[in-house]
């Protein structure tokens, strides 16, 4: 599914849909194989005529199975994306915006080069990947509280658990 990003935004168009989580292969590459959920997504274009600035508003929400980095058991996590990207015409403009932002002088907005054949689902997937926690964990691990402390320490996964705490 591709759009002309600039034309899409100027026309104020909207695209939405649902996709099975498992079809987002980049998102799922380091996740458990059993991905039964789906992602709902929407991309909406906006154009501010006075400034000539075009925007894409990206919303997505859905469930992914992840591995808890504390107890190493899989669990379902709800990912939510709500993000606005400003469109620029060229990579050079994008680099200039990024440089300003790095110097702390630019607006805290992410920009995107307005491709004529922008892959909408690829864009949604990029944002989902960014929304993914670096080290997902249960709020309370299912094993907590009923596992005696000594056996937890002797677990071969203890080292991994400790790594996950950082
Ligand atoms: Zn856990």
What would your notes on this structure say?
It contains 6 helices and 7 strands; from the N terminus they run βαβαβββαββααα. The strands form 2 sheets. A 5-stranded mixed β-sheet has the order 2-3-4-5-6. Strands 1-7 form a two-stranded antiparallel ribbon. The chain has one domain. The chain has 166 residues and is an alpha+beta fold. The chain is globular and about 60 Å long. Helix content is 28%, strand content 34%. Zinc ion (ZN) binds next to loops. The site of zinc ion has 7 residues, from loops.
What proportion strand?
25-35%
**Low-pLDDT segments:** none
Instruction: Indicate how many domains the architecture comprises.
Output: 1
Instruction: Tell me the major beta sheet.
Output: 5 strands, mixed
Global Rg: 20 Å
Strand order in space, largest sheet: 2-3-4-5-6
Helix and strand element order: EHEHEEEHEEHHH
Ligand types: zinc ion
Total E-strand runs: 7
> Treating each run of at least 4 consecutive H or I residues as one helix, how many helices?
6
Shape: globular
Q: Helix proportion of residues, in percent?
A: 25-40%
Q: What separation lies between the terminal Cα atoms?
A: 39 Å
Provide the structure class.
Answer: alpha+beta
Q: What's the rounded overall pLDDT mean? A: 88
């Amino acid at each position: 599914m591709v759009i002309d990003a600039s034309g899409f935004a100027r026309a104020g168009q909207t695209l939405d849909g649902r996709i099975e989580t498992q079809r987002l292969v980049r998102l799922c590459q380091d996740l458990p194989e059993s991905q039964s959920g789906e992602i709902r997504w929407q991309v909406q274009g906006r154009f501010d005529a006075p400034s000539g600035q075009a925007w894409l508003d990206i919303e997505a929400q859905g469930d992914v199975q992840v591995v808890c980095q504390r107890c190493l058991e899989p669990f379902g996590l709800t990912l939510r994306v709500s993000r606005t990207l400003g469109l620029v015409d060229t990579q050079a403009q994008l680099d200039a915006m990024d440089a300003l932002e790095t110097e702390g002088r630019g607006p805290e907005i992410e920009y995107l080069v307005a491709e004529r054949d922008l892959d909408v689902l690829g864009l949604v997937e990029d944002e989902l990947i960014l929304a993914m926690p670096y080290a997902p964990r249960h709020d309370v691990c299912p094993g907590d509280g009923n596992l005696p402390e000594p056996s937890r320490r002797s677990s071969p996964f203890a080292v991994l658990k400790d790594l996950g705490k950082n």
